[in-house]
Prior knowledge:
Layout: H1 10-13, E1 24-34, E2 39-44, E3 57-60, E4 65-75, E5 78-83, H2 89-92, E6 98-103, H3 117-120, E7 124-127, E8 132-141, E9 146-151, E10 158-161, E11 167-171, E12 176-179
Parallel strand pairs: 7-12
Antiparallel strand pairs: 1-2, 1-6, 2-5, 3-4, 3-6, 4-5, 7-8, 8-9, 9-10, 11-12
Amino acid sequence: MSGSDTNLHNEQHAGSPNAGEPAFLVVGKLRKPHGVQGEMTMEVLTDFPERLAVGSTLYVGKEYRPLQVRNLRWHGGMILLAFQGMTDPEVVGEWRNTWVYVRAEDIPSLEVGEYYHHQLLGLQAITEEAEPLGLVTDILETGSNDVLVVQPETGADILLPFTDEVILEVDLGAGIIYVRLMPGLLP
Length: 187
């Protein structure tokens, strides 16, 4: 269905200047200093870790401080990351548990018919009979296919598998997802 860069509740962690699309997307979370050269461990929260490379710019913290990557290497399922001009473990240690972002406009393009999670959140789900169901408020990653969580104005959430049988069309420009309700999908 889509690539996963996370906006982690955009009202809390990323600005939303354009129609609900965040200006910055979370790609990781700094955890703790490692060694004496200013490296930190970073939990990776993106499906595209290859764009995190030496020389790239990442944005750190609530202020989205731009920092250039000086060194980067994988270490036990996490990334060891160091920034230009930052060599003191005590200084970088102040960023423990801080979000790391990329600019939304810098994310890689996806294939036709694929969408980033942040593009789908907030879209209106409408049946093929033009009946509004509610807004997409969350996306569950199940392994076989993602599941859209649609919150109606009243009642329980509706879970819609992101499959060709259920999701007929995604119109990002109009902010609509057209769906076919299969038996058993409504609560």
